[in-house]
Amino acid sequence: MKNCFSRFSFAGCQKYFFDNLKRSSFLKGVFYHIRPFVCIPCPMDWMKVLPPGQWGDMDFDQAWEIRMRPGHPLLALFPWGSRQGDRPLSPEEIETAAQALSGHALAAHGEQLARGFLPLPGGHRLGVAGEMGPCGVRRIHSLCLRIAHEMMGCGEAIFPHIAGKHTLIIGPPGSGKTTLLRDLIRLYAHAGWQTGVSDERGEIAACRDGAPQLDVGPMTDVVSGLEKGRALMLLIRAMAPQVLAADELGGREDGRAVMEAIRCGAILLCTAHGRDSRDIARRPGLEGLLAQGAFEKKVLLSRPGEQPRLEE
Asked: Rounded CA gap, 165 and 222, in Å?
């Protein structure tokens, strides 16, 4: 039996499944039961933008991160472990990859790169490190490519416990906070709640030409490319949302905007970096939110694909 299936790759089976999903009622039934555990990659032809190499059967669509550093092989991080490329990368190859990922318009994104990242189509994000200058990046040393995935239904188990309550999703970087946030936004919208999203970095809805590329539901309005505080106030004034969502709360401005949104009667759904509430309480700008009891529910994540759990 093992030899019978050895010639079929995981990527090939997955491609067959999703290519035939819309045409097969049987596969639709299977997907309904397994969708909380399935990552749907946001398509991009990685082979056209990554340095050439012998990648073997490495399926970059299934990776969570791809890291490139000079003098070291490309490193791809998957939910089940990591894989390396076959040779060290040169600084020139890393620069070429950054140019390709930016659509050969790296210089046009100086303001965004000065903040350390560049949003990419499909909700992906390119993080950069190197020599910084007043107008952006002088020389790129290393790249961290965060690959967006949709995990349809990953928030269904937790949604009944947080619906209608101010909720903070807490987890370390790369734990799947944005993925869970996106699915909860979708669930709110499908449940009939008017939902507004502050998508500062274009990772939640990944809007392109004004339309979300990722599924955030039918009753969701998105403001992209604007700092969270201003975006939340704009949504309250212009769109009268019942639910407001924002990713990665940080400084005092974010904290003040959240409190103002709560006073306006909106339900807040946000994320923040940390392991638990104690970490959040130690962060300047956010400690006041917990002290004032801004969030009624805290949802904890530890790693990608993990089932979210409520903090006791």
From this structure: 21
Residues 125 and 211 in one domain: no
Same domain, 163 and 59: no
Number of residues assigned to the chain: 312
pTM for this model (two decimals) = 0.76
Burial of 272 (0-12, 13-18, 19+ CB in 10 A): buried
> What sign results for the dihedral spanned by CA atoms 136, 137, 142, 145?
positive
Range of the domain at 116: 46-146
Residues 131 and 56 in one domain: yes
Which residue, 214, 291, 210, is CA-closest to 255? 291
For residue 224, give the H/E element and its range: strand 220-224
Tens place of pLDDT per residue across the chain (312 aa): 333 333 334 444 544 554 554 455 555 455 444 444 445 545 567 777 888 775 666 777 778 889 999 999 999 988 778 888 888 999 999 999 998 888 888 777 777 787 788 888 888 889 999 887 766 677 889 999 988 888 889 999 999 999 999 999 999 988 889 999 999 999 999 999 999 999 988 889 988 888 898 999 999 999 998 999 899 999 999 999 999 999 999 888 888 889 999 999 999 999 999 999 999 988 887 888 888 889 999 999 987 667 899 997
Instruction: Kindly state whether residues 16 and 161 are assigned to the same domain.
Output: no
Closest to 272 in 3D by CA, of 286, 288, 282: 286
Distance between CA atoms of 80 and 69, rounded to whole angstroms?
A: 22
What region does 194 belong to: left with phi over 0, alpha with psi -120 to 50, or beta?
A: beta
| Same domain for 289 and 202 | yes
* Rg of the chain on CA atoms, in Å: 20
Number of H helices, E strands in the chain: 11, 17
- Residue 259's domain is classified under what CATH number? 3.40.50.300
Pull the structure tokens for residue 41: 């990659």
